[in-house]
Amino acid sequence: MTISKSDVLVSPVQDDRKPVSSERPVIEETVASMNGTNHVNTDDDDSKSGNVVSLCLDEHMKISREARMAASIRSILEDIGEDPNRDGLLKTPERYAKALLFFTKGYEESAYDIGKDAIFNINHNEIVLVRDIEVFSKVHIAYIPNGRVLGLSKLARIAEIYARRLQVQERLTKQISQAIEELLQPQGVAVVMESAHMCMVMRGVQKSSAMTTTSCRTGVFKTDKEAEEELHFLLKLNQD
């Protein structure tokens, strides 16, 4: 799949959720009920139910977000002249809300959490290249270790974290590079991204074959000609 997210950055909508503190008593009452008790947890037993309360709060907040988004989508359907209550659209607002939360779940994850337990000390100082990572485009990630390497699957996970956010390609490329730089402090990092943008394919100039390529290089990939040439050679292997 080689389709990129739109490069139009949508301004985030101000969060109008109630403070978590105002929802906590309701959640605690629910937890108490689930535990077969008829009282709200006090400070003395907070430590026992803290994890359960936290999980319930997370789920409650997620449901609240989905409900607000679904209501907004219902209004959009009405504004374009559709009937959200007709067959075929009854569950569309809820499905769309869940899909949008999934497509932007990168806001709920961090590169550090993904990579912290998958870094290994190893004596390897040649290029590590993972090609053709599909994240609504194609991403190629290369780095030269400086005593530590990262589990290969984590490179794809890091790319996905930043791809599942409102993005422009240039920033996405740089964020992937910075995350690997911070995790490993390698000799150099190179990230190359190739994308087809729907804003150019489906509308506007409607150029279906247009591809956009961006790159971000650090360390030896900027200062060492030999490392740069080797990277170019490796990237061309599957193209020849």
UniProtKB/TrEMBL annotation:
Q: What class of enzyme is it?
A: hydrolase
Q: Which GO terms describe its molecular function?
A: GTP binding; GTP cyclohydrolase I activity; zinc ion binding
What residue stretches are annotated with the GTP cyclohydrolase I domain? 70-232
Pfam families, alphabetically? GTP_cyclohydroI
EC number(s) on file: 3.5.4.16
Q: What is any one of the record's Gene Ontology cellular component terms?
A: cytoplasm
GO biological process, any: tetrahydrofolate biosynthetic process
The pathway this protein participates in, as annotated, is: Cofactor biosynthesis; 7,8-dihydroneopterin triphosphate biosynthesis; 7,8-dihydroneopterin triphosphate from GTP: step 1/1
Q: Where is the composition biased (Basic and acidic residues)?
A: 14-23
* InterPro entries reported in the protein's UniProt record: GTP-CH-I_C/QueF, GTP-CH-I_N, GTP_CycHdrlase_I, GTP_CycHdrlase_I_CS, GTP_CycHdrlase_I_dom
Q: Which UniProt keywords apply?
A: Allosteric enzyme, Folate biosynthesis, GTP-binding, Hydrolase, Nucleotide-binding
The ranges of region (Disordered) come to 1-23
- State the function annotated in the UniProt record: GTP cyclohydrolase 1 is the first enzyme in the biosynthetic pathway leading to folic acid.
Family membership: Belongs to the GTP cyclohydrolase I family.
Q: By what name is this protein known? A: GTP cyclohydrolase 1
Species this protein is from: Aspergillus parasiticus
